[in-house]
Structure formats: C-alpha cells, structure tokens
Write a structure and sequence with these properties.
Domain Response regulatory (chain A): 7-121, 126-239
Pfam families (chain A): Response_reg
CATH superfamily of the largest domain in chain A: Response regulator
Strand content of chain B: 5-15%
Keywords (chain A): Phosphoprotein
Structural class of chain A: alpha/beta
Oligomer: heterodimer
Strand order of the largest sheet of chain A: 2-1-3-4-5
Radius of gyration of chain B: 27 Å
Modified residues (4-aspartylphosphate) (chain A): 56, 176
Largest sheet of chain A: 5 strands, parallel
Structural class of chain B: alpha+beta
Bound molecules: protoporphyrin IX containing FE
Strand order of the largest sheet of chain B: 2-4-5-7-6
Number of strands of chain B: 7
Mean pLDDT of chain B: 84
CATH class of the largest domain in chain A: Alpha Beta
CATH architecture of the largest domain in chain A: 3-Layer(aba) Sandwich
Protein name (chain A): Response regulator receiver domain protein (CheY-like)
Distance between the termini of chain B: 35 Å
Low-confidence stretches of chain B: 6-10
CATH class of the largest domain in chain B: Mainly Alpha
Radius of gyration of chain A: 18 Å
Chain lengths: 239, 405
C-alpha cells in the first residue's frame, strides 16, 4: 500500500488555473507542484516520483505533447494526462503515440479529475494496453480505469510498451497483434514468461485469430471485434 | 403546412445587365429576331405540347432521370406545362433584361435540384432539332426558303441566348458556393482560434466555482447564483464546441441507426424540460446510414431552439419518414411564434440569429452537418405558426438493403 500522499505535477501557463487546481487538490491532501512551462516541468520532474502528471498542450516554449514525450522518455511508468481546449484528431493521435494516459477537454471535469487522482493513487494493479488504434486504446483505458484498483498503461508502439515493461511490473497485458513497429506476439511471449520465471496473464487481440490457431501456449487470443463485457470479465478474473 | 416537403425555390444570384448586353451582342440577337420569333409563335403554338412531350421522352430515356424527377407522372405533366410556357414566353419576348432574370430564375431551379450543367447543352440541342422539325413539317408552306433560313437563324440565336443564361446561372451559383465556403473557412479559422483561447479563462471560472460551491453550500442565495454562473459557463463551453465543430468540418463516419434512436438520444442530451410535450407520433420506422454523433449534434441544436422558442407550456413535434424515391426527411417543429419572414431566407447563414442570446451558429452547424451527408436543410413555419426545420436526406443516407455499402 502506498501511504505517502498522492503526488501530482500540474503544467499550465495559466497561473489562475493552476492556483485553483492547487487549492482544490490541497484540500484533498494531495501533494501538488505547479510548473508554468514545459521547461520548468522538466526541472521539477526529476525531484521525486509522481503519481500523476497533468499538462496543458498549448504553452509558450515546448508544448504539452513534446513535454509528454520527454517525460515518457525519463519515466515511462508515470501516467500523464493531457488537457486541451480542443482535442483535434492530430493532437489526440500524437498524445496517444507518446503514451498519454488520456486526453481530456478544458474546462476540466473536476469531479472526474479528482476521481482519476484517487484511482492513480489507489491503483495497485498496473495493466499494459498496447494498441495503435487510439480510439480503441483509449476506450480500453477508460474501461479498465473504471475497474477497482486497476491502473491502465496505454502504449501505441512496441517500443514504448517494452520501455514501460522494463520499469513497471505489469500484472496483466492486453496486446494488439499488429503494431506499427512490429509483431505484438514477441512482446506477449516476453511478458508472459518473465526473466525471474514468474508468469503473467497476457491477452493478444487480433482481427485474424485463425493465423494464431494453436500456435501459442500460455498466451490467450481474443478475436476482434470483441464484446466489451467479456473482456472486462476476463480481466477481472485475471487481476 | 408551409414547411416544404419539397425543397423550396429560393432566390439565387442574378446575372448582371452587362452580361446580358454582352451575350446578346455576341450572339447577334437583335430586334428583327424578336419580331420573327413573335410572329412564329401563333404558327407553332399547336405543336408546342408535342415538343414538350418529346423533350421529356428524351430525358426519361436516361437511366438516372428518375433520380432528378422523382415526383411521378403528376410532376412530369406539370413539367410539360411549364416547358410549353417556357417555349411560348421564349418566342413571345420581349427579350430584355427582365427576360434574362426570369430565365435565370428557371436556371436556378435546375441548379437547386442538383442537375449537372452538362445535360443542359444536350437538352437545348434536342430543342433545336424539334423546332426545325416543327418548321419543316408543319410550317413549310408558310415560309419561303430565305424566310425559313432567317427563322432558323433567329431560333438558333434564341436557344444560344437561353443556353448562355442557363450556363451563366450555373456559374453564378458555383461562385456563390465558393464564396460561402471561403467565408465559412475564414469564420471557422477565426472561431477555432477564439474558441480555443476562451476555454482557458472558462477553465479558471469553472474551477473557482468548484471551490466556491463547497464554501457556500449553506447559503441558498449564494448557491443559486453559483449555479447560474456554472450554467452559463456550460453554455459558453457548448457554444465553443459548436464553433469548433463547424470549423473542423469533419467528414461523416457513417453507421446504421434508426431515426427514432437518433431522436431519443438527442432528446435526452437536449434536456427538454417537463413543460414541453414531445409528440413523436409521426416518427416512422426509418433506417439511416449517417454519422450518429454529427446527427445528434444537429438534432440537439434544433431541439434546444424549439425549447427556447416557447415560454411556458409548449410542444415539439417530431417527424421522420421515407420518401418513395429512397430519400427521407426528418423534421423538428415547435409551437412558438415561428420564423420571421424577413429572417427566413438567411436563417442558415452563420452569425444570423433571431434570439437575443443566440450566436447564430446552431442552424449554420445543422446545415453544415446535413450538407456533409449530401442532404439539405430547409426552414419554414407550420400552419399553426411554429417554426419547423426539415432535414432532407439523400438516398445514400437511407439504405434500402439491410446492410450498408
Ligand atoms: C433546355 C433545357 C431545359 C429547359 C428549358 C427547362 C425548363 C424548365 C422550366 C421552365 C422549369 C420550371 C421552373 C419553375 O419552377 O418555374 C423546369 C423545372 C424543372 N426541370 Fe427543367 N428544363 C430543362 C432541362 C432539364 C433537364 C435536362 C432536366 C432533368 C433531367 C430537367 C428537370 C427539371 C426538374 C426536375 C424541374 C423542377 C421541377 C419541379 O418544380 O417539380 N430540366 N425546367
């Protein structure tokens, strides 16, 4: 159990907004730090472990998406929430590629935001979700996020997924078979059989389950499209 | 009902007098032509219905003609009568600028029904051939060879003139579309940037309200005003969303959905208050192949307008029905005062509003959404006086087979 106060780093160039967020989170006993720019955030970031980072997109200097990429470089396992006045398709896709936990609209839905903070602080069960389809990936992230005690870690590429897996001890993984930078199956094998000999449940999602018929032992195959309740049920059994 | 089930005839741009002068000059159409044609009219009169008959026979030999002429035999009979009238007025003249305007208005009718311009040249050529036949078969003994030649030249010039006006009308309509698109794009870019920037101060207001709300929970008066501010912030946010949606002009991502489902989710999202009765008796089983998210946005806008148009108890009447030709319509009507006659023609233009608090984007967004689906939106008033907006869906939005293409 994580008994230290939840820690949140907020990055936005609007001081009035960050002041308000600090006030709201302070009341909840959350440790909050504020950065007015991406550059400042990069300085503060290494000071400690953060349960959650929240960043605006449009800022002077490096923007929120670039910041996200750099933070994920330094600490792939830290969840980063991207907030923006308008999430167009490009912003959404770029955020997903760089490993954002989610993209949310401004003005922030504060109730949902606080709920998310509670979730990240309470989450004991990290689950890896690897899919390059950002709509599906963010849906899965949402669905899994609603499960008690599950912290989803979305990744759009094998590369990010491997870096995440190197620092987060995932309890389970949900992996798309076809990824832009390679085959999800190899990752599934690596995750399923850890170096220390322990095993983790891994589900591979594919539109062509026939191609995998009987090929893998230990790796579970889920045919796309799948009914969401089945998936949730299956994951609940796993975690 | 004044609300059109058919698309209405609205005015399009008119050719300039200078255009008319130049084109008559170029064609060489003059006073003698007018006189010759006027004298020809009584001689041709008896044969005009036959020419009209033949004209539509040719049109219907085209395999896709019934996509344009969808109103059945009744419409064809009406078209034949108007075509006879067209021939009569063409021969009678006077061939002045007013004539040009009237012809241009007829041109706009064809632009509006989406008839491609290329058919016009062929249609007019058919007309030329038929008129030669009238002269050669029925008026042979009325003209000697030179007179016959002169009459044919005059007729050719008349058809050249009519074709030129027709094509000019198509060009003006295309120019108009382009201008509107450019205007919308400019408004869109500006709106997107303003909307985006506005969300920052809104975020501050909204988060401050969140903090205040907890502090003043015991004071009903403060609470009431905080809720008022919060509602207005939500309203601003919704306006920004509409602006950005319009600016983005997203192409539809279609899926199968019924009209009833669309109405139901929209009614829920629009939060129609208790005081308004919703009559969905005229919502028929109608399967659509449209972008559900965009359509819901359009319908929510219409429902919100309908609510705001009525103080106290009111009614919203919903209609959805297929047309025999495979197209369909959806309509939202209210029991309010209706659209004013002076605003009606421009009601779908962005930044036109009749409400004190409106931004004039709601109906513009509705229009943009339906047009992105290849349909059209029309507005009018119902007999009882309330406003009605009708979405005309083209046949591609309405699958005939159970599975979409
Ligand atoms: C030389 C070419 C043509 C002439 C002179 C002509 C003439 C006319 C006239 C006078 C009208 C009545 C406009 C009014 O409402 O006042 C009309 C309407 C119409 N025309 Fe044409 N037309 C021509 C070509 C065509 C062609 C090629 C088509 C279709 C394939 C077509 C389809 C229609 C339709 C659908 C209407 C509208 C009807 C309605 O109100 O129900 N026309 N046309």
């Amino acid at each position: 159990m994580n008994h230290a106060p939840t820690s949140v780093l907020v990055i936005d160039d609007n001081d009035d907004l960050t002041e308000n967020i600090v006030e709201i989170l302070d009341d909840l006993g959350v440790y909050v730090r504020v950065a007015g720019s991406g550059e400042e955030a990069l300085e503060i970031f290494d000071e400690r472990r953060w349960d959650l980072v929240v960043t605006d997109v449009r800022m002077p200097g490096i923007n929120g998406i670039e910041l996200l990429a750099q933070l994920k470089e330094r600490s792939p396992g830290t969840p980063v929430l991207v907030m923006t006045g308008y999430a167009d398709r490009d912003t959404r896709a770029a955020a997903h590629r760089s490993g954002a936990l989610a993209v949310v609209h401004k003005p922030l839905d504060l109730e949902a935001f606080i709920e998310l903070i509670e979730r990240v602080s309470a989450a004991e069960t990290p689950v890896l979700i690897v899919d390059d389809d950002d709509a599906l990936c963010s849906n899965l992230t949402d669905i899994l996020g609603e499960q008690q005690g599950v912290l989803p870690h979305p990744a759009a590429t094998l590369e990010l997924a491997r870096r995440l897996a190197a620092c987060v001890d995932f309890h389970a993984a949900l992996i798309d078979l076809r990824l832009p930078d390679g085959d999800g199956l190899s990752l599934a094998r690596e995750l399923e059989r850890r170096a220390d000999g322990s095993r983790r449940p891994v589900i591979v999602m594919t539109g062509y389950p026939e191609a995998l018929e009987g090929a893998e032992e230990g790796v579970e195959v889920l045919a796309k499209p799948f009914p969401v309740p089945n998936l949730v049920e299956r994951l609940r059994e796993i975690v | 009902m004044q609300t059109p089930d058919r698309l209405p005839v609205t005015e399009g741009a008119n050719p300039e007098p200078s255009f008319f002068e130049e084109v008559t000059d170029y064609i060489g159409f003059g006073a003698e032509d007018s006189v010759r044609l006027r004298e020809f009219l009584p001689r041709a009169e008896a044969h005009l219905p036959h020419v009209a008959e033949h004209f539509y026979e040719r049109i219907f030999s085209h395999p896709r003609a019934d996509q344009v002429i969808s109103g059945g035999q009744e419409q064809v009979e009406r078209l034949k009568r108007t075509l006879v009238e067209w021939m009569r007025s063409g021969l009678a003249g006077p061939h002045d600028y007013d004539y040009c305007l009237r012809r241009s208005r007829i041109g706009h009718v064809h632009v509006r029904i989406g008839l491609p311009q290329r058919y016009m040249v062929t249609a007019m050529n058919g007309m030329r051939v038929d008129f030669r036949e009238v002269i050669d078969e029925h008026c042979r003994n009325l003209y000697d060879a030179t007179e016959r030649e002169a009459l044919i030249v005059s007729l050719e010039r008349l058809f050249d003139l009519d074709l030129a006006i027709m094509l000019e009308t198509y060009k003006l309509a295309a120019d108009e579309r382009l201008r509107r698109r450019e205007r919308l794009a400019t408004i869109g870019q500006l709106a997107a940037s303003i909307g985006h920037d506005l969300r920052n101060p809104l975020s501050v207001v909204q988060s401050s309200l969140y903090i205040l709300r907890r502090r003043v929970a015991e004071d009903p008066r403060s609470s009431k005003h905080i809720e008022k501010i919060a509602n207005q912030v939500d309203e601003c946010d919704a306006i920004i969303t509409r602006l950005l949606e319009m600016a983005r002009n997203r192409p539809p991502q279609r899926s199968l959905i019924t009209a009833r489902e669309l109405f139901e989710t929209s009614l829920a999202a629009a939060a129609v208050p208790e005081r308004i009765r919703v009559d969905d008796g005229a919502v028929e089983d109608l399967q659509l192949f449209v972008d559900a998210g965009l359509f819901k946005q359009a319908l929510v806008n219409l429902l919100i307008n309908a609510v705001q148009a009525q103080e106290g108890a009111g009614i919203i009447t919903l209609t959805a029905r297929p047309n025999p030709d495979g197209s369909a319509l959806m309509r939202v009507a209210d029991g309010g005062p209706g659209f004013g006659t002076e605003t009606l023609p421009s009601i779908f233009e962005p930044l036109v509003t009749t409400k004190a608090s409106g931004t004039g984007l709601g109906l513009a967004l509705v229009k943009s959404i339906i047009e992105r689906h290849g349909g059209q939106a029309t507005a009018g008033n119902v007999d009882e006086g309330g406003a009605a907006v009708t979405l005309h869906l083209s046949s591609v939005s309405v699958p005939t087979a159970p599975t979409p293409p």
